[in-house]
Specification:
Distance between the termini: 32 Å
Radius of gyration: 25 Å
Number of helices: 17
Length: 393
């Protein structure tokens, strides 16, 4: 048993944010029926790298789902979708606001057909507000949401976060909203609409940058790997590579003794965390010079002994091979038809009684169309053939 066994999701989303959300639900056991365009399918199918002509990008975001192709511009295609929504718990879409209304598939319409339906709408800016109709990609909301302004080196240009945090943050918040709505439905018996905007999620992920500004008037800027209020708390260059060290406010004296600078802790310029942050430009070179004298693993051993968090800055190949990552089974191997075994990041949610897990590979385009139409919706094979011939499925 998985936690979402018995829950069905009709997933109209494409590219990254929506599919990332439905992938989480699939890993937790939901049956995800991915609705795709007839000819091209999800745009993500056309993004590289490719393995034997199959998009690795698509494979990593759509594992464990079923694919049905539907022409939603045809009323017969929309009728099929309505039948799917009637038999499902969740509908997920990430079109621009107004698109589903134009198709006659808005929340107000579908809730009349299925009052228990949870209708999740994930868009760039949400369903309301002056930007609601705008298009957005990850990089757009990273820029507009402020996170690029606090990423990078001081005085340097704005830097996009290396992972698509605009998309994935929105996908995570949408999954949380869906799970909350499922729990509410247990009490009320009614579904509801979940409205998530990518820009909203970026604001929520600014950590405490917003309250720093609203309480101090200071506009946060890029600090490299530094923490704005805790010092030292950043990356240093060790003898054989970079290392990150986070010295908590109560660990300063212990840290100085360990690195061979016992007098530094009593220096009046560095006695408190506030003073260390104020005099950062004086302190940093002193520490940098010391950290360069030993290898990363030596420093990790010493810091572990005195209870100070630290670690290497791993490249992705080292992450994949890391013994802790391996022990936590965070790299899963999935068999794809025509591709073979592919390794990808696994689900990080570990549940003791109802474990999560990858349910299977990403589907080929329309792989489950006939199965869904016949087994779930009760169409005959002759009806399916007629719909195919008419360009509906």
């Amino acid at each position: 048993m998985k936690p979402l066994d018995g829950i069905r999701v009709v997933d109209l989303s494409r590219i990254l944010a929506g599919p990332y959300c439905s992938m989480i639900l699939a890993d937790l056991g939901a049956e995800v029926v991915k609705v795709e365009e007839l000819s091209r399918g999800d745009e993500a199918r056309h993004v590289g790298p490719f393995v034997n002509g199959v998009s690795a990008y698509f494979m990593s975001l759509n594992r464990g789902k079923k694919s049905i192709t539907l022409n939603l511009k045809d009323p017969r295609g929309r009728a099929v979708l309505i039948e799917l929504a009637k038999r499902s718990d969740i509908l997920l879409e990430n079109f621009r606001p107004g698109t589903m209304q134009q198709l006659g598939l808005a929340y107000d319409t579908l809730r009349q057909i299925n009052p228990r339906l949870i209708y999740a709408s994930l868009s760039g800016f949400g369903q309301t507000g002056p930007y609601a109709s705008r298009r957005a990609f990850d990089i757009v909301v990273q820029g507009m949401g402020g996170i690029m302004s606090i990423t990078g080196e001081p005085g340097g240009p704005p830097v996009r976060v290396g992972a698509a945090i605009g998309d994935m943050g929105a996908g995570l918040f949408t999954a949380i909203g869906i799970l909350a709505a499922l729990q509410a439905r247990e009490r009320t018996g009614k579904g509801q609409q979940v409205d998530v905007g990518m820009l909203d999620c970026q604001v929520a992920l600014l950590e405490y940058a917003v309250i720093r500004y609203t309480t101090t008037g200071e506009v946060p800027g890029a600090l490299g790997t530094r923490h704005p209020w805790i010092t030292p708390f950043e990356a240093f260059e060790a003898k054989d590579g970079p290392i990150v060290i986070g010295v908590g406010t109560k660990h300063w004296t212990r840290f100085c003794d360990s690195v061979g600078l016992p007098g530094l802790a009593e220096n009046p310029r560095f006695e408190t965390n506030a003073l260390r942050t104020e005099h950062y430009k004086e302190l940093r070179p002193i520490l940098a010079e010391v950290i360069k004298t030993k290898r990363v693993e030596e420093w990790i051993g010493e810091m572990e002994e005195i209870g100070i968090p630290c670690g290497p800055i791993n490249t992705v190949d080292r992450v994949v091979a890391d013994p802790q990552v391996q022990a936590r089974e965070m790299i899963a191997e999935v068999e794809h038809a025509g591709v073979g075994k592919v390794k990808m990041a696994a689900c990080p949610v570990k549940l003791s009684e109802t474990p999560s897990g990858i349910q299977g590979p990403a589907p080929t385009l329309g792989q489950h169309t006939e199965e869904i139409l016949t087994s779930l919706l009760g169409h005959s094979k002759e009806e399916v053939a007629r719909l195919r011939k008419a360009g509906v499925v």
